[in-house]
Structure prediction request, 949 residues.
Amino acid sequence: MAAVGYLLAAALGLGGAALGVAGALGHAWTVRLPALLPLGGLELTMDPLGGLFLALVGAAAVPASIYALGYARGDARGLLAYVLFLAAMGVVPLAANALTFLLAWELMSLASYALVLHDRRAHESVSAAWVYAVMTHAGLACLLAGMLLLGAWTGSFAFADWRAAAPGLAPAARNAAFLLLGLGFAAKAGIIPLHVWLPLAHPAAPSHVSALMSGVMIKLGVYGLLRAGLDWLGGGPPWWGVVVMLAGAVSAVVGVLYALVDHDLKRLLAFHSIENVGIILIGIGAGLVFRAAGLPDLAVLGLAAGLYHTLNHAAFKALLFLGAGAVLHATGTRNMEEMGGLVKRMPWTAAGFLVGSAAIAALPPLNGFVSEWLTFQALLQNLRLVHAGLNLVFAVGLAGLALTAGLALACFVKAFGITFLALPRSVAAAEAHEADGPMRAGMGLLALACAALGLGPSVVLPVLGRVAAPLARASVVPTFGDWLTLRISGDFASLSMPAVAAALAAAAALPLAVLTLAGAGRRRRGYETWGCGRLVQTARMEYTATAFANPFKRVFDFFYRPVKQLDIEVHPESRLFVERIAYENPTRSIFDDWLYRPVLDAIHRGARRMRAIQSGSANLYLMYILAALLVLLVLA
Amino acid sequence: MEGVLVGLLQVVLAAAGAPLVTGLLRTLKARLAGRRGPSPLQPYADLRKLLAKDAVVSTTTSWIFRATPWVLVASMLAAALVVPLVVSRPGLAFAGNIILVMYLFMLGTFFLALAGLDAGSAFGGMGSSREVAVAALAEPTVILAVFALALRAGTINLGGIVEHLRTQPHLAVNPGHLLAFAAFFIVMIAETGRLPVDNPATHLELTMIHEAMVLEYSGHYLALVEWAGSMKLLLFLALLANLFFPMGVPDRVALLPLLLGLLALASKLLVLVGALALIETSVAKLRLFRVPELLAGSFALAVLSVTSVFLLR
Prediction:
C-alpha cells in the first residue's frame, strides 16, 4: 500500500520535473480557477523562475521517494503528509496571486510539521516540531504583513499587478515591503539568526523527508527572496544586495562553525544547509548589487551562480541525508562517536556519502566546485564597480566564502572519516548492515546527479542564465562559452570541467600503469596499525570527532565560548587512585544566549503582567468585549 | 599539437624536477646549519628505494587508504597542466584558473586527511585534524591574495595575469603587490608544511602535522605521497615566482623562448628555495595554537594589499 504511494510520488515528481524543465526553457502558461478561492481565485502561472524551482522539487522527489520504498516501508501514516508536502512545494513556485501562494506555503509548512512530528512519543521530536511551528509562523506573519501592505498599496493581490505598480511606489514603501518579505523568506531559508528551527527539525524528520526539507523546502525561501526582490518589487538600491550578501556570508561561516563541533550526523548536515543557503545568498547578493549598479551581465552571473548552487546543494545534501538515514537505519544512532568502520560493512552507502562529502566540500570534478567557482568569479569581478565601500563588502564576501570552503572541507573529513573509517566504536556499528535495494538506488541517482552537474555546467549554466536574465533586467543573455569550456566575461576566467575530469583520470591512470608495469605494489602485506609498541589496537584508541574538532574550538573560542567541566572521582582511601573521570566541553550558542533567551524572557515577563487582567470571571471578560467594541465604534 | 606538447613538458618537468627542489632545499638547509648534508639528488635515491620495498598496510584500513596516494599524485599532475611553469598559457590553461589549482590541492588534502583517519591510530587522526585546520584557516588568505592579483591584472586567468603583469615591471617594487606576495608566501609555508608551521624533518609524535598523517604509509605508497608532496612544493613556488614576478615567462611555444623560460624559472625557483632555506634555519617551529596567529597575520597582509588598490585608484 505504502509502496504504491511512494512509487506514485516518484512518478509525480518525474512529471513535475518535466513540466518544470519545459517552463524553465520558456514554455509559459496560466491556469485560472476563480471559483475555487476568494480574492482572485486559484491562479497558477508558469515562468522560467517558477519552472526552475518546480523542476527542482520534482527532480528531488524522485530519488527521495524511491529511497522511501526501502526506508519507510509500511509507514502509511506518513505517506499522506509526504504527498501533500510534495504537492504544496510544487504549487508554491507557480502561484500567481497572494492567496494561492500563502495557502500553498502554509500547507507546505503544516505537512512538514506533521512529518517532523512523525515520532510522537519522542520528547525531542515534539519540542523540535514546536520550535519549527513557532518559527515558521513568525515568518508567515512577516510574509502576511508584507503582502497585505503591498496589496493595500497596489489595490490588488495578483502578482502581475504588483509587478506593474511597483516602480510607482515610494522608496520607503518598497524598502519596507522588501524587509518584511525578506524576513519571512529568510526564516524559511534558515538564515542566521532565524536558523534555530533548522538543526532541530531536520534531524527529527525521517531521512527522506530531511533530504527534501534541506534540499528543496528551504530553497523555496531563496525562491521567495528572488521573486519578491527582483520580480514583484523589480529590484532596489544597492544596499538590498549588500544586506543579502552579508547575511549570506554570516550564515555560511556561522553554519559551518556550528557543524564542525556537532557530532550528531543529521544535525551536522542541517547546519551545513544553513551554510549552503549562505553561499547561495552570497551569489544572489552579488547579483542584486550588480543589478543596482547597472552591470546586468554581472548580475546574471551572480544570480546564475546562486541558482546553480541551489541545484547542486539539493543534489548533494539530499544524497548526504539519505546516506545518513541509511547509517541511522543500520546502527540505530545518529551519534558519530558510536560509529566507525562502516566503509567495510556498508560499502555502497559509504561510496555515496563520499561522493556527497567531496561535492559539498567543493572538490573538483564534482558539482559543488562548479557553483563555488562561479560565485568566486562573480565576486572577483567587483573590480568593475568603482565604489570603495561596495568593493570592501565584496572582499568580505570573498573571504567569508573562502573560509567557509576550508571549514566545510574540514567538517566533511570529520563526518566521513569518523563515521565510516577505522574501527567500529560500538557493537551496533560493528554489526551494521548495508542499505537495501531501493535505498541504494535513491542514493545512486543523486550521486549521478552530483557527477552530471559537475561535468555539465556548459549545458546547465546557459539555462540558468536565461532564467536569471529577466530578473536582472538584462536585455542580452550573456554567453558562457562553448560546450567544452565556460568563459566568464570574455578572458576574465575560464573553466572546463570535462577537461579537468579527463586530466585527473589520465593523471591517475598513467603513473598507475607505469608503476604496475614496473612491478611496484605487487608485494603488499597486511599488518596491524603502528602504535608505539602497544599490544592490541582497540577503537578506544582512535581519534574521536570531539578531538578532531578541538583545534577549531580552540581557534574560534570567542565564538563557541566552550565551558570545561571536569569531574574526577577518587578512591576514598587515597586521592591518587582515580576511579572515574568525566570530562565535558560543551559549546554555548551566541544566538540562544544573546537573542532568543532575552526575547523569550521578555515575553514571559509580559505574559505574567497580563495575568493581572485574567481573573477567570466570565462577567469581567464580557465587559472587556463590550469595552473593546465601544472603543472600535468610537474609532470608526 | 603544440599545446599538448607543452602540457606534457610541464607535467614531465613537475614530475621529474620536484624531488630536485626538495633535495636542494635540504642541502641548502644543511649547509646553512653548518653540516655537509646529503646531495641534492638524494630524494631520487629515496624514491627508488621506497619503490623497491614491500608495502606494509594496516589491516584496519580500507580502500580509501590505498587510493589516496594515487589521488594525490593525480591532483598534483593535473595542477601541473594548468599552472604556468614554462609558458604563460600551457595546453590546459583554458581548463581553469588559480581557484581550480587551489581546489585541486584541497582534493589532495581531503583524501590525505581521510587516509590519516583510516588506520585508526591516534597519531593519524591528530595529523588529519591539524592539517585540515591549517588548510581551512589559510584559505581566506589565498583568495584575497588572488583577488589582489586580479585587481592589478584585470583578469583571473593564470595566463592573463602573467601576460598583464609582465607589462608592468614597476610592480616588483609596489608595496601593495609585495604585501600580496608576502601573504601568499606565508600560505605556501602553511600549505606545504614547512617551518615555522610544521617541521618536515620531525618525527616527534606530538608536534607532527603532515608526518603524522602519512605515518602508516610505506613502500611505493610512501614514495607516491612524498613525490606528490614535493610536486606541491614545486607548484606553489612556481606560482609565487611566475604570478608575482612574471619576467621571462614566454607566451610563444618556440625553442629559444622555451629555453629562456626554463632558465628564468630555474633562477627564480633557486632564489625562492634559498629564501625558504634561510627562513627554515632561522626560525623555530611555532606552537600549534600560535599558527592561527601567523595565518591571521598573512590575512591582514592580503587585506591591506586589496584595500590599497581600492583606495589608491
